[in-house]
Automatic annotation (TrEMBL):
This is Uncharacterized protein. The lineage of its organism: Archaea, Methanobacteriati, Methanobacteriota, Stenosarchaea group, Halobacteria. It comes from Halorubellus litoreus. It comes from the Archaea.
């Protein structure tokens, strides 16, 4: 049977779970014409890690090795898609280089010592790999982009 101390800790945790929220999501773009920053309405990200087993005599696993780490995701903007496209694609329709996605996490419980300070994540060398948009009469256009990134800070 758990002690009262364990029960109190569990109850305290259940009443105040750790909270994380996105404060600012921006897309930073550097071009020969200058640097631009756009607000992003929604973002989904994925970090995929490929692990392969190392085998002895090609039979028994004796360990493993990380062979690949990749980053991908999607982002959605509200507004004029042709303007956003002009930031993400060059005059030939190819994805621009020097694009970065920055996400700032906010600290919703600043007085909670278990809640970390706000921090920023940046996916750099981002490349758009597909795009689409949704439009309804009288509504704001939403355009979405699927992307890959060559790196992330912090990893």
């Amino acid at each position: 049977m758990p002690s009262n101390n364990t029960t109190q800790n569990t109850q305290q945790y259940e009443s105040k779970p750790p909270v994380e929220a996105a404060k600012d999501v921006t897309l930073a773009i550097s071009t020969v014409d200058g640097d631009y920053e756009l607000s992003v309405a929604n973002v989904d990200t994925t970090k995929e890690i490929t692990v392969e087993q190392v085998r002895e005599n090609n039979v028994f696993p004796i360990g493993d090795a990380v062979t690949e780490i990749s980053y991908s995701g999607s982002m959605t903007f509200k507004g004029r898609r042709h303007v956003i496209d002009s930031y993400l694609f060059d005059e030939n329709g190819l994805p621009r280089r020097n694009v970065a996605l920055t996400l700032t996490h906010d600290d919703l419980n600043p007085n909670d010592p278990n809640n970390p300070d706000p921090f920023t994540e940046t996916w750099h060398d981002l490349r758009v790999v597909s795009t689409g948009y949704e439009m309804q009469t009288g509504e704001v256009t939403e355009v979405s982009y699927d992307w890959i990134a060559l790196g992330k800070t912090p990893a």
